[in-house]
Amino acid sequence: MYNLLKGKKGIIFGALDSKSIAWKVAERAHEEGATFVLTNAPVALRLGTIAELAEKTGSKVIPADATSIMDLEHLIDESKEILGGKIDFVLHSIGMSVNVRRGNHYTHQDYNFTKTGWDVSALSFHRLMSVLYQRDMMNEWGSIVGLTYMAAQRVFPDYNDMADNKAYLESIARSFGYFFGRDKNVRVNTISQSPTLTTAGSGVKGFDGFVAYADKMSPLGNATAIECADYTLSLFSDLTKKVTLQNLYHDGGFSNMGVSTAIMDEFMKSETKEEEAPVKKAKK
Ligand SMILES: NC(=O)c1ccc[n+]([C@@H]2O[C@H](COP(=O)([O-])OP(=O)(O)OC[C@H]3O[C@@H](n4cnc5c(N)ncnc54)[C@H](O)[C@@H]3O)[C@@H](O)[C@H]2O)c1
Question: From CA 85, how far away is CA 160, in angstroms rounded?
């Protein structure tokens, strides 16, 4: 351990269970000397195991639905009390699509579900930063990080409306990041993480194939949740003070690849099999 976050205080959104990326961030932040408040939606607190994490990291848990401005205001005010003042870091690790959950295809969305997913996954980032900004809750040189996925830039058909939500989230990071930087010397960035086996991740259709493909495509292989936690901590630390308004790929190199030899080998194997026993080609 490096004592990277010694004396720093923060708020971590989105730890549902031990697979959650936010859970790993909380464990690592604790090891690096940070103190923080944990938060999640009231329903997630009932279903998940966050109390275990709170005990392990000596943290308080405050419920907050990220779609409710009142909940967020209450969370920020309570956190100020608990942590004894302003804070240095915030992790937004929240994502949910009702269309994905209900199995609605991208071409046949229920727009009320679309709005709910956007509200939870994207607009919540704006709402959260708005409360932090207006209450002047962030210390100078503090850091705010949101988690995202590369479907914001490229097509991954089964990622559904979450692709649009992530594009919106990344845009908010830049737009709000400007004002946070200019007025308060606070950084705002998004980390674009490899596909990772968590509750949110596994909701995506064909997720195992997705993970295996990305792993074979990436020269360094997929980044794990723990590796994502480590990268997040570097952005919370004083070592990255001038990094802001960025969407940072943490994906083993996937985002700059065209094709890898491993994928080509797989492709040629399946082409040969198809030639031997022709079958109806799957849709692209
Ligand atoms: N797992 C992946 O493959 C992957 C890849 C890239 C980015 N991400 C992103 O990482 C973040 C964390 O996801 P995860 O993979 O750890 O899964 P997860 O399911 O463990 O975390 C998602 C969290 O969002 C919370 N949440 C949902 N609705 C909420 C609301 N209304 N208010 C407050 N919190 C709410 C859930 O309770 C849960 O804790 C998400 O933004 C996700 O899109 C995940």
Answer: 40
Q: How far is the CA of 120 from the centre of ligand 1 (A)?
A: 10
pLDDT, tens only, 26-75: 999 999 999 999 999 999 998 879 999 999 999 999 999 999 999 999 99
Cβ–ligand 1 distance for 44 under 6 Å, the answer yes
How far apart are alpha carbons 119 and 140 in whole angstroms?
28
Residue 19 Cα: closest atom of ligand 1: 20
Give dist(CA 85, CA 78) in Å, integer: 10
Ligand 1 centroid to 273 CA: how many Å?
39
Number of alpha carbons in the 13 Å side-chain half-sphere of residue 61: 23
Maximum Cα–Cα distance across the chain:
70
CA proximity to 127, closest of 90, 96, 82: 90
CB-ligand 1 contact for 165 (6 Å cutoff):
no
Is this prediction's pTM over 0.85? yes
Domain ranges of the chain: 9-257
CB atoms within 10 A of CB 255: 16
149 lines ligand 1 (CB under 6 A): yes
CATH, domain range 9-257: 3.40.50.720
Ligand 1 centroid, distance to 65 Cα (angstroms): 13
| Ligand 1 close to Cβ of residue 18 (< 6 A) | no
Torsion of CA 111, 116, 120, 122, to 10 degrees: 30
